[in-house]
Protein 1
Amino acid sequence: MQHSDAKLVERCLGGDAHAWENLVRLYSRRILNLGYHYTGRLDVAEELTQEVFLKVYQNLRSYSASTGSLQNWIMRVARNLIIDYYRATRHDKQVAGSEELEVLDFEQDSQSASPFENLYLKEKAHYLMKGLSMLTPELKEAVLLRDIQGLSYQEIADMLEIPEGTVKSRINRGRIELAKVLRKGSNPEGFAVS
Amino acid sequence: MNCSRFETLLSEYVDGTLDARVRAALEVHLQTCSACSMLVQEVQSVRSQLADFPPIEPSEELIEAIIEKTSGRFHVRSIWAEVIAPTLRPFLTQRFAFATLIMFVFLLLVGNVIGPDFSAFSFSDFRPSALVEQADRFSSQVQKKWGQIRNTESRLVGEVWRLKEDLYGRLDYHLINMLVRSYQHSIEEQGARKEVKGEKKK
């Protein structure tokens, strides 16, 4: 994997436009979703995604395969940018637990065609996002990266530059906290789907 | 194994990353502790709901914006942006605007004089049946004109032939005359020479 990462980066640095486009398409989904889950707003997530790739483009020379996978490196850049944004805007508006959370229309899955299912998805997404926003930033981040982004403990540890034990602890506390928050604020039967 | 210890290992239990011995100890605790059992169910539910969280797909516009912002490769190409606008742009500058306007007015006036008279048309002239009728009329006029042209052509060809014959005839006449005169002249000269020789002998 790291060999192919190095090759892709080499081609990008060599001015291969198609290689760069491939790289963008490969990681844009992950970055966009990370941004959305942190900020709760799609427009902000899209702007942040552009900023992340601009930074990646400008600093691609500093990537080295010996330090880890390209994905981890890009995620680290993304996370730092997103955290900076989050810290800058945290005092301006209360994103956590607010109605400003953007509820997206998840009508992207062609198999999920019925309006009821789409409404269910929207409500569920809003419910989860609201619950996540109740967590502290460290716990929220750990749960997002593990349960939504699907990263392993080691990958999260590399990305956040903290020990694996700390990652496990944060994920554990985050999940338990989230379960308690959702239990307090939900009607469990309302989300049962046959 | 107590609840506090169980809670610290809960996530790894749910993720299935514990070794067999520790996992077995937790399961023994679960059989006797309803609070921890409920917590396990809640955490499993949260984990599966988050895993099912629908991902957002980046739009093509976002991808293009990223590439344009970085490598600058993407550029929306259109005939208007690439060809027409750059061609027209100089004429729309302040410097040439007046000249452009004059040219436009001139073209309008010329078109008004020698172009089709649109005031003669009405909407009924553009009905399909009217258009077919006009096309037929136009076609028979064209055929008639072609006939006239062919007649004129044959007449002209005949005239040219006659002229050619006449000319050749005249040329032949003149040539023969010239030859005859030349022959007569040479005979007269020969006769004159013989007379001169005869006188000398005497």
Note: The domain at 1-92 of chain A is CATH 1.10.1740.10 (Rna Polymerase Sigma Factor; Chain: A).
Protein 2
Amino acid sequence: MKEKLKELRENAIKQIKESENLDKLNEARVTFLGKKGELTAMLKSMKDLSEEERPIFGQLVNETREAIEKLIDETKKNLENKELMYKLEKEEIDVTLPGKKIKVGAKHPCSLALEEVERIFGGMGYEIVEGPEIEKDYYNFEALNIPANHPAKDEQDTFYINSDIVLRTQTSPVQIRTMETRPLPLRMISPGRVFRSDEIDATHSPSFHQIEGLIVDKNVTLADLKGTLELFAKELFGADTKVKFRPHHFPFTEPSAEMDVSCFKCHGKGCRFCKGSGWIEILGCGMVHPNVLRMCNIDPDEYSAFAFGVGLERIALLKYEIDDLRLLYENDDRFLKQFK
Amino acid sequence: MNTSLNWIKEYVPDLNCTAQEYTDAMTLSGTKVEGYECLAEDLEKIVVGKILSIDKHPDADKLVICQVDIGQSAPIQIVTGAPNVVVNALVPVVLDGGKVACDHDRKRVPGGVKIKKGKLRGVESNGMMCSIDELGSSHDYYPEAPEDGIYLFPENAGVKPGDDAVKALGLDDVTHEYEITSNRVDCYATIGIAREAAATFGKEFKFPVIKETGNNEKASDYIKVTIKDEKLCPRYIARVVKNVKIGPSPTWMQRRLKGVGIRPINNIVDITNYVMEEFGQPMHAYDLSTIEGNEIIVRTAADGEKFTTLDGREHELSSDILMICDGKKPVGVAGIMGGENSMITDSVKTVLFEAACFDGTNIRLSSKKLGMRTDASGKFEKGLDPNTALLAVNRACQLMEELNAGEVVGGMVDVYPQVRTGNEVEFNPERINKLLGTSIDKDTMIKYFEKIELEYDEKKNVIKVPSWRQDVHCMADLAEEVARFYGYDKIPTTIPDGESTIGGFNPRQIVYANAKNAARFNGFSEAMCFSFESPKVFDKLLIPENSELRQAIIISNPLGEDYSIMRTISLNGILSSLALNYAHRNKEVSLFEMANVYLPHELPLKDLPEERMKLTLGTYGSGDFFTLKGSVVDILTEAGVREEARFTATKELPFLHPGRAAVITCGKKDIGFMGEVHPIVLSNYGIKEKVYVAVIDMLNVAELSDYDIKFKGLAKFPAITRDLSLLTRKDVTCGQIEECIKKNGGEYLESIELFDVYEGERIMAGFKSLAYSIAFRAKDKTLEDTIVNERMDKIIKELKNLGAELRQ
């Protein structure tokens, strides 16, 4: 009997080890461990043994069963693993194939630039304010210290609806409207469309965007203006940007200045981009003229203010290196898609 | 405005800087230099040479061999093909290794043309004799130069071999070009810029010595002056020069004029130009013999009066145009141009010089009206200081005398009813420092003022401003003067302290931003279109003649008809942009624009119009009505519209397909419309593909928007879902069916979802099949089938009444 058991065990091990898949392994299990299997048969034949031999043999049979079961379990795990590996191998894909895209549109470069500006000034506590695009002559000119027949009115090539109503030539009227109605202190920027009768070419458009900025408070200084706009330039064009303020003239600010930034292409060395100067003119600014404050019922002896105006298209063209203004208004998909 | 650096140096003799240093410093002190041109750029090693001998070239008929004295121990040999060389002529010679500006074809070569010694047809040549063109100038500026050939120095030039020829020709100058701001009228003159330069560089400013010259006759015996309109002509000075000899002006004057880009003509013209450049005061010279009645009357024209200016053009005048007249007739348009009838000719004997001051605005408007913008009107329209007229007229007469161009008659006729004085501005250094954020001491400020002739009156504690600085009125103006001489770059940089403000966007702006983002994530790229367009747009969009949309605001001075009305409907921009993309063969294009339309309350416009923000979507190449509808719904959701939008079929929108158009409403609010673009409109835009558009009124959307979100809890009890497959006539809309289900679904109805629509062969013609999944759920219990069954029975019954039956 013992030899028979030994032989069974060896046969079982052999057959299990030779099982090349789970079905074969199951066959082996049935053959040896099944209800009608060989080991069961052997147990049944125990009745022929003597009382003394029976427990000893029973123990041997159990040992054999455990050994076989253990081996089956191990083999099963191995086979399962192998099958999974095989399956995974068959599932291999070419990961370099293109991804499936959800169609997402692009932002207009002007919006992209505007969001940057809004982020910078929003963070400094400037609220974003809007005003009418078709504006009263009073707000566009007179309240900005540009009286009737002032040459600046001609310089700005205004589109007129009638003698009292114009297409605003600047976002500055929003300054006035805001100062007239809001409590002080005040910090605002006002982006929006403006219009001037310039023929369309690579650098001119009769319709473009400006961003006006204004702060009114008790102790606002030219030094504050410089500090704020320098911060703005560094945020917008990079931390290594240098700024230069040059005296200038605007009817609604005094003192006035223009701000140049160091050319971000050549970093001030001089290139075609900055016409060799190393600097790029970026915005006009100044301390709000006392006449303007007075017209908004703000006492210039108590309050001071600074204001600035920057062309959004100019920033977009410079920042994204677009060489023709007309592209901004053609809305060619191939152009827009580059600003995702 | 241009200046010659050499001319500036006449008033600022100690000025010693390069053209670039000058540019930078002047720009930083407020006189912006736009650029400069060194006349001697690319001119190197050019000396005066004297031709000692000319011999024939042995091997070339057209060449000659010259021995040229260049002021050195031995002459040099130069071979030339120039036709005009003669022995003893003094010529500019560029030596071996030197440079000239232009090539033989008078074309400017960047970096110059290098001249090296070499052999010409076997004969050694050690340099080149130059034409005026090769030196970068032209016959226009050097009338004595031959049109073709070598420049020969005139006998009286006072040059000798070896002299610097560039200097001798006055080409050692720099022309600076400025952007002068409209407030600095005084800087439209060399003298004004020189004053700024002296102040900028801290050098002495030497004002020219101007004398009132003249014989012992009296100008008032020659001419009488009357000003009829003192507002339009605050001052008129007349002086007389007799025995006039017309001829060329001297070289030094020609050089000055050339240095600022003015061509010399003759002594009289050159003198008036010279004075205009120097003082910014335009002058006019009349032939006194043409002035009838020996008098000048300054008056406005009569309406319809005709007048011929000296350029030969006849103008019809109007009563707002100021004229210079004699006893009988007009002789010039004040400040703009003289008349043909009084102009100076070569036979002139006695000249009347006019130096006047006219109202800037009037000159500007008249010049516009007459379509004549002259150098003179350009200066006058800035509004000149009447005090300059006296300096100018005396300067001109003095020059006439110095140049021996005529005999100046003593005295003048000066009509100056209201003498213009300078402003006085209270001086408060603390307030200036407070505005600038600086701590500059009072004495330093006073020093800055003195540099530009602003005088401190200690007794009155005011700054006395000279009359040529009409732009300085108030403390802020003084602050600017301080700031620019202190240096904008030295002013500290600080951040405003003050009370903090919240900043950022208002709720409406956030709705707009969210809608824009949602449009983008639905595949639409942002477009920007013009606010003005052609009135033809209405025809293109098939908008009927009587439509209110045609009531558009008209621009009175548009760039052209194509940009002449303010849009009342936003579609044209997007359709034109799609058309451009289509023409460029871009496939699958989806665009949106967020911009205003302009709706007048009444026309002609009395008050500002309503500006309504519209979100316009347009797409072709992919998707259909329902793709766009899905996007619209998504955008509305992202824009915070909680209530479900209703889409109602419409045939009222002429630019849309009548069977594929819907108006969008939310509650009682009009949200906009959407649909497939009408094929005729598409053909008007040249698009041969289906285009879908939607226009959403963002003001109404913003009013509906509500981002106040409250958590409703998670469902604790299971839902019961029933599928419903319906067969219905085509004309029964989905909207009707869903409304019916909603109405009869009862309190437990949770959702209705359409999961299949079918029209085709497998069902009857004129019918469609719809399949819905309907979910019921109670908040507080597990629903029993019987309740749901009751409801479903009701729904099915009502649907049957509508014409939708369960599909068998």
Note: The longest helix of chain A spans residues 53-90.
